[in-house]
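Quick log. Single chain, no ligands specified.
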Amino acid sequence: MKKLLVVAAVCGAFASAFVCSDAQAWGNDGHRAVGAIADQLIMGSNAEKRVRDLLLPGESLEKIATWADCIKGTYCGPQTAEMEAYVAANPRHSEYHYTNVPFQLSEYHDHAVGTADDDIVQTLKQCIVTLQGKGDSVSNPRNFTPRQALLILTHLTGDIAQPLHVGEAYVGKDGGFVVPAGQAQLDAGAAFATQGGNNLLLDDVKLGESSGRLIPPPEAENVDPPGPPRAPRTTRPLHSYWDGSVVNYAFRRIDARTPEQFAKLVIAANPAVAVDSGDPVGWPYQWAEQALAVSKLAYDGVVPGAMSTQTSKTTGAVYYTWPVSVPDDYPVPTSAAARTQLTRGGYHLAAVLKAIWP
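-> predicted structure:
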């Protein structure tokens, strides 16, 4: 996979405008919402007891849900000794967070286009088998400890629910989204990966105006004081929109201000979440396929424009971007999908923990 290098280039080019989206999948609130849902669903169970045995005092699934993003830098604060040790032992840890299956497909298959031995599905399998106490050099090649497995599982169960972390958009050399036949087609420049939508640039001004009309912000007395002014920008990566904006919109639409409030409200609504079947080690395949289905909605009506060549100001790497247009009502179906996927993430996390520790 080449996503890490190219995303770094994109981050370098846009760093003055926003935090790179690859570092904050679903954003802090989204991941914490997934953890908060699971916290509430495992309450009183043996799984809750076993989870607490692995957590430090004051920790919860909600609080550790961003750990795997925080180890990518210092934006969460100084790195702890535990974080530094994990990063040293897992130099490719940033690649554990996603896979790049063409979004037009409906299933994830090992070794198919866009997949890798260290992608999100394979890493989740290793976390689950480790917590089951069945890990060995073959099933757990990274030698995760049970605590590390819980930290990574909690985060990646949220990541795999984010549709752009599973369904990748590939653009053909003549434009339009395509399904590459194999890696050779990508290497030959007949099709291009968009790095989880990081290289697809939305008109941020237009999207902001439409979202303001369609999903009004809460009343002034119900919101926190505004922070410092944000530098104006005209474009935003599609991935960044899915990591942050749709979470904000999903919270707005049910009048939730915090991840814990979001969790309580969605659980109270008694959502219909499909029950996974078979050995829990195989559940990440089912989660990936659900995300692939939602990625089709994420790209519905998204039209790429002309390709532009860019050069990172920090690394000098060359990469390509495409302006994209989206339907005028794009914030409405996408925020509804975000609520569904965040809910699924929390329910999946609770279910797999209960299956591991019945």
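The radius of gyration is 20 Å.
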